[in-house]
UniProtKB/TrEMBL annotation:
Keyword set, alphabetical order: NAD, Oxidoreductase, Porphyrin biosynthesis
Domain of life from the UniProt record: Bacteria
Enzyme Commission code(s) on record: 1.3.1.76
Listed name of the protein: precorrin-2 dehydrogenase
Pfam families: NAD_binding_7
GO annotation terms (biological process): siroheme biosynthetic process
Pathway(s) served: Porphyrin-containing compound metabolism; siroheme biosynthesis; sirohydrochlorin from precorrin-2: step 1/1
Naturally occurring in which organism (per UniProt): Geomonas terrae
C-alpha cells in the first residue's frame, strides 16, 4: 500500500488549486464542502467554478501561476493542462513542505483524492492510488444502492449517544460494551423501515442517559 488513508479537517484552512478546468472543478467541490479556504489560480474557470467564485466560496486569482502562490497552504493541487506548469507547482510545494496532488503525475504526488460515497458523516472512499479513477468511481456507483440516507441518520444517532455518554462521564467499563452493542445493531434497517419505537426502546435500554431517537436529534423522517 503506497498511500496512508486519512480523513483531514480542512475547516478554515488554506488550500490552493492551480488550474481551472474540469479536474479542478471536481476537487474544488469537495474542498468547499469540507469548509476549506480555497484559492484557485487560473486565467479561466469552468462555469461551476466561476459560480463558486461569484458566491464567495472560493477566491479566484485570474492569472497564470506564479511562484509564491502556494504560500501558507496546507494542501495544494497542480491541475493545469500544462505539464511544465504542474511541475513548477510540485517543485514549489516540495520547497515549502506543502502536500501536493499533481493530477497528471500520480507518482510525484504526496496524496491521491479517492472517489467518495457520502451519507452525512459517513464517508466511504475508494482509491486505486491514482491508477484508475474511473474504476474507483465505478465501485462507488456499485456501493450507492447499499448505503442510503438511513446511514446518515444512523451515524448521527450513534454519534450523539456516544457524545452524551462521554459528556456525562459514565465509566469506560459501562461505555465500551454499550458502544459495541449499539454498533452491532442494524440501525439503518430500523430507520429505513420506520421502526422508531424499537429504536427508542433499544436506546433507553442501553443508554444511561435515557436517550431516545428524538432526544438525540435523529429526526423522524419519512423512511421513503
Amino acid at each position: 500500500m503506497r498511500h496512508y488513508p486519512i480523513n483531514m479537517n480542512l475547516e478554515g484552512r488554506l488550500v490552493v488549486i492551480v488550474g481551472g478546468g474540469r479536474v479542478a472543478e471536481r476537487k474544488a467541490k469537495r474542498l468547499v464542502e469540507a469548509g476549506a479556504k480555497l484559492v484557485v489560480v487560473s486565467p479561466v474557470l469552468t462555469g461551476p467554478l466561476a459560480l463558486l467564485a461569484a458566491e464567495g466560496k472560493l477566491l479566484h486569482l485570474c492569472r497564470v501561476y506564479q511562484p509564491g502562490d502556494l504560500t501558507g497552504a496546507v494542501l495544494s493541487f497542480a491541475a493545469t493542462d500544462a505539464p511544465v506548469v504542474n511541475r513548477m507547482v510540485v517543485e514549489e510545494a516540495r520547497a515549502l513542505s506543502i502536500l501536493i496532488d499533481s493530477v497528471d503525475a500520480p507518482r510525484e504526488s504526496d496524496f491521491a483524492t479517492p472517489a467518495v460515497l457520502q451519507q452525512g458523516e459517513l464517508l466511504i472512499t475508494v482509491s486505486t492510488g491514482g491508477a484508475s479513477p474511473v474504476l474507483a468511481r465505478r465501485i462507488v456507483e456499485q456501493l450507492e444502492p447499499l448505503f442510503g440516507s438511513e446511514y446518515s441518520e444512523a451515524v448521527a444517532l450513534l454519534g450523539t449517544v456516544r457524545e452524551k455518554l462521554l459528556t456525562e462521564k459514565v465509566g469506560n467499563a459501562y461505555n465500551d460494551p454499550v458502544f459495541a452493542e449499539l454498533a452491532a445493531l442494524d440501525l439503518p434497517t430500523l430507520i429505513r423501515t420506520g421502526q422508531r419505537d424499537a429504536i427508542d426502546q433499544i436506546l433507553q435500554k442501553l443508554s444511561a442517559t435515557g436517550a431516545t431517537s428524538d432526544s438525540v436529534g435523529a429526526g423522524k423522517k419519512d423512511p421513503s
